[in-house]
Amino acid sequence: MSTRHLSSWPPASPREIALPPTSLWSNLEASAARDPNRGCLVFYESVLTYAQVEAEAERLAGFLQHECGVKRGDRVGLYMQNSPQFVLAFYAILRADAVVVPINPMNLTGEIEHMLRDSEANVMFAAQEVAANALPLLGSALKHLIVAAYSDYLTAPTDLAIPDFVRAPRASFDVPGVTLWSQAVARDLAPTSHTAGPDDLAVLPYTSGTTGLPKGCMHPHRTVMHTTIAWSAWHEVVDGGECILAVLPFFHVTGMQNSMNGPIHQGATIVIMPRWDRNVAAQLVERFHVTGWTAVPTMVVDLLSSPDLEKYDLSSIRAMGGGGAAMPEAIAQKLKELCGLTYLEGYGLSETMAPSHINPVQKPKKQCLGIPIFGVDSRVVDPQTLVELPPNEVGEIITHGPQVFLGYWNKPDANAECFVEIEGKRFFRTGDLGRTDEDGYFFLVDRLKRMINASGFKVWPAEVETMLYAHPAVKEAAIIRTRDPRRGESVKAVVVRKTGSPDALDETSLIAWCQTHMAAYKVPRSVEFVDSLPKTGSGKIFWRGLQEKEDQKTA
Questions:
Q1: pTM of the model
Q2: Which of 157, 159, 218, 546 is in Cβ range 3.0-4.6 Å of 406 for a Cys bridge?
Q3: What is the tally of structural domains in the chain?
């Protein structure tokens, strides 16, 4: 294990953190006891206090136990966008000693069915705008469906632009097995004593990986607790005076930990956005004096592209960071110039319940994953021999740490492939290609299966994408492979132009620009301009969809 990174360790942070011998539910309970009248959730301009959140979660937990038959260790689906109901349902499931199965609200019936049947969850919370996708599963995969209307929690007037699906009035469902959220809360059923502890399963997020059907990542309370506490410990947050803008989806582990569980542990206020809107985000920052925001680079790119940016006071933000993709240097520099903010990049996966690496606050590096955090041993190894590689050699990132999952739910073959024992430690094979530098910082090169082989030259798409972002007329870019009868594979760029850019941008001029900024074998041989790039539910560019479309065209 290399210790080079320890010279950059945050000076006031411990090398390891002690976890409380409790469940995640205890975090909400403690914050509510400490400051019951503090705003916990802000939904546009409607507020729920910590006392209200605790009380409503208790009532929902009672409904799960007494009306739905949920027992300790049972899995319960959670299928909705960011909202007060997501947070309430999440903690209600934990309070009932059960396991949360977060489901992407973009998923359709067949995808939901796979997760429900695989996890053996027969009870689910769903938002009404997606409930139609779950109704066909009642009587088979589902026994109970609790349907929530976001508008139930719009209790205060506001001039903010609220999406129609959020404003939609509560609908009725005359279907056996369906209970309205309002009815479940109104039952006012008290749950039994809370018995789940650190080693009970808490969350079962599903990850798609590179092939096959999604697999459930088994996370007990202790692995989730580690990254719940880690963010505030790394950033040396010592009180509950923070206000967090929650834009990344809660169903994804980064949003779940950095924007929901972490702030609740701190006793912070969470300002919730169900859908990204750069102007509403700026208004919320200004009105509620947001201090922290976890965002993916695409959101930052969009915010900084707003012609109205200078109208808003964003000076309250003290910390901004995220991961999922490297922040382009040109965008990071613009963020620093306009807002005085340094975007702190981190790295994590569903299997590590978000961060295993974060950049040190006092010594960050650009386009860098950061360094291994509390108790984490990460290495870059040769994918075949598993021998640790020296600095600047590309290999697979493997990770051992307190937040690493137990394994994939009911997938012994997959577990045998993804774990390896080295020096008596159990390491998770991330499938990500990376390198370290002389200071022990980690850098992502690409996914193992995303490399482009052009006439024997290895091209890492993420590297080319980062360079493209430096072009003044490029708003977003994705690099994919295209079949080439001579080279085998060639590089293709799919690009979104910046609106109103003074520079004319076409295929010829962009390729010419690339030829002056990168090695010849990395230069895209073709460029496709599009109005927008597809995104995953967590806001990342969905490059696999672009690749599949290209493969079909060139088959």
A1: 0.86
A2: 218
A3: 2
